Amino acid sequence: MSWKSREGEASKSAFVSRKWTLLFCIGCFCAGMLFSDRMWSVPEIEDISSTTRVDDETPKLGSGCDPTIDVENEPKDVYGEVSKTHRAIHMLDKKISNLEMELAAARAAQESILSGSPVAENLKIPETRKKRKYLMVVGINTAFSSRKRRDSVRATWMPQADKRKKLEEEKGIVVRFVIGHSATSGGILDRAIEAEENRHGDIMRLDHVEGYLELSAKTKIFFATAVASWDADFYVKVDDDVHVNIGTLGATLARHRPKPRVYIGCMKSGPVLAQKGVRYHEPEYWKFGEEGNKYFRHATGQLYAISKDLATYISINQHVLHKYVNEDVSLGSWFIGLDVEQVDDRRLCCGTPPDCEWKAQAGNVCVASFDWSCSGICKSSERIKEVHRRCGEGENALWNAAF
């Protein structure tokens, strides 16, 4: 066989091999596709069946097709649960707020003790007071020159000796005259007050230098000292030339016990006096806008009451609270921007007879009585007995009162 014939046969053989190789690859591909389709079809069917079983077992909520489901009552139940949860959160928030206030007050008291201030001595003595809860602490603002006024108050609406102790123990009412120190420490004025305290035991001394232009500072220190010394629902400031019916005051404040931050008094908004030399002149009048503007609403200074949370707030922040020349304006400014409820109760600012007398006869006994023209009872040391006789609530009203 020639070389050319052998070469032709080899070419035909290679062509046949390539043809069978191609057919073999196509066959393998088809077999692989068939095998792959069969392998994936089984899981797919299983997934569909399992999904169907899950759907069958899942409750059909809110479908409206199942007559056993009460769709109409379901929103009410949800709203009820939401309301309960809201109340629970509100109560928890209130408890946390109270604990924070108590913690801050305790820290302030600790700092006072560590600093060795005179106020801290007051904190160390009344250990039994801290364990007792009182309704109110009444601080009667007084001065060194007001001995006759103090005696007239003792002779009328302020219980003395055993009755004052009974008032604290049975009614939870603490009443004290509030006064600081003279500019000359240990001088004759301070010794006179110490002798008066030894005789009556009804004076609260403050770490404060007395002065007419320092009433705002005195008010601030009074609340800080009182809240550190007695755990009460309310703290009251009253002037020593005002007549007060303690039982009626206690009943009035007791109605506001559920309110955590309440500020009670005769609310007013008097003019800002820019003219020098007049009474109640406001040196910082420019802060209140144009001349002739009025103050923001605040309680008149003869008598007002604040809840424990507000007294604690004053105690904690006393070093940064601004003092205006008028103490009632200062107190009102300290609460601006806070979530405080103002209660305007006109029974806290009745006039002297016949005004308070007519109201008492009508069954609306006044809490406090004074003359607006004098910002107190005019010549109170002489006239307060008459006011007490004609407008007083009666001794039995106090002792029979339930707070």
TrEMBL record:
Membrane topology: Single-pass type II membrane protein
Pathway(s): Protein modification; protein glycosylation
Domain of life: Eukaryota
UniProtKB keywords: Glycosyltransferase, Golgi apparatus, Manganese, Membrane, Signal-anchor, Transferase, Transmembrane, Transmembrane helix
Gene Ontology molecular function, alphabetical: galactosyltransferase activity
Signal peptide location: none
Subcellular localization, as worded in the UniProt entry: Golgi apparatus membrane
Domain DUF4094 per the UniProt entry, residue ranges: 17-109
Enzyme kind, highest EC tier: transferase
GO CC terms: Golgi membrane
EC number: 2.4.1.-
Cofactor(s) for this UniProt protein: Mn(2+)
PANTHER family referenced in this protein's UniProt entry, alphabetically: BETA-1,3-N-ACETYLGLUCOSAMINYLTRANSFERASE, HEXOSYLTRANSFERASE
Protein family (similarity comment): Belongs to the glycosyltransferase 31 family.
Protein name: Hexosyltransferase
Organism: Pyrus ussuriensis x Pyrus communis
